[in-house]
Design goal:
Oligomer: single chain
Shape: globular
Structural class: mainly alpha
Distance between the termini: 93 Å
Radius of gyration: 27 Å
Largest sheet: 2 strands, antiparallel
Low-confidence stretches: 1-9, 44-51, 227-239
Helix content: 55-70%
Order of helices and strands: EEHHHHEHHHEH
Strand content: 5-15%
């Protein structure tokens, strides 16, 4: 069904490989980031609520939902349901439940704007496709790397886990639990990222100008050297 501006009837299909006979496998390394509640919609410049995430009782719920979108093979509907459940629980424990509920509803309403596109883009960035016959080996390799990095003592669990996850959604559910267990959500400040990009591009521009200046100087020196070579040739002729 078509969606309205708030996504109330949004039918966002689970991300899948475009070719038959292929299935999703997450890209390594697993890189999960969150810009907080104000970044959930994916709409540049949109601020969901006046409160900062630091004072927002559902900030952790926004992080979980954003992380959920980044888990390859995870259905969008599941991520939204997890956000609802987390928000309800957080507001039950909040000092001002009514205000928290209003804020949570506002976050979810604005987060749904354009999020089918955000979900698909995020999934495309986090997934790769392999033939069915190779999927189990790639998932095994992924989990082995994960446990070697985050919990070597539990690496022996990999074979048992792989035997139980025979679909992309099941594997995604396992990764989502691991992300939460090992607290792997890295917080990023979109404004800081922008400033860092500007600083980096400014530095690259400066270095490029320095290289161009150096090349011009070398070109001039090279021309002078050519003149000297001609002079040397004349001297050799005379000898």
């Amino acid at each position: 069904p078509p969606s309205n501006p708030f996504g109330e009837k949004e039918d966002c299909k689970v991300f899948r490989c475009p070719r038959d006979g292929y299935e999703l496998v997450p890209l390594w390394p697993l890189n999960i980031t969150s810009g907080g509640c104000n970044a959930m919609s994916g709409l540049v410049g949109v601020k969901h609520a006046p409160n900062s995430d630091a004072n927002d009782p559902i900030a952790k719920c926004c992080d979980l939902r954003t992380a959920c979108y980044q888990i390859c093979g995870m259905p969008k509907q599941y991520c939204d349901e997890q956000f609802d459940q987390c928000g309800n629980q957080a507001c039950d424990d909040a000092p001002d439940k009514d205000e928290c509920t209003k804020t949570s509803s506002l976050h979810l309403m604005l987060a749904k704007m354009g999020n089918c596109d955000l979900y698909r883009r995020t999934q495309a960035q986090q997934c790769e496709c392999f033939p069915f016959t190779e999927v189990k080996d790639h998932r095994t390799a992924f989990l082995n790397k994960f446990y070697q990095k985050h919990n070597k003592e539990s690496a022996h669990k990999v074979a048992n886990i792989i035997d139980k996850v025979d679909t992309s959604a099941k594997f995604a559910a396992v990764l989502f639990k691991l992300v939460q267990k090992f607290k792997l959500i890295k917080h990023v400040d979109e404004n800081e990222d922008l400033l860092e990009t500007i600083r980096r591009e400014g530095k690259e521009s400066f270095e490029r100008k320095q290289r161009e200046k150096y090349m011009k100087k070398n070109d001039k020196t090279s021309d002078d050297d050519d003149d000297d070579d001609d002079w040397d040739d004349d001297e050799n002729d005379e000898l």
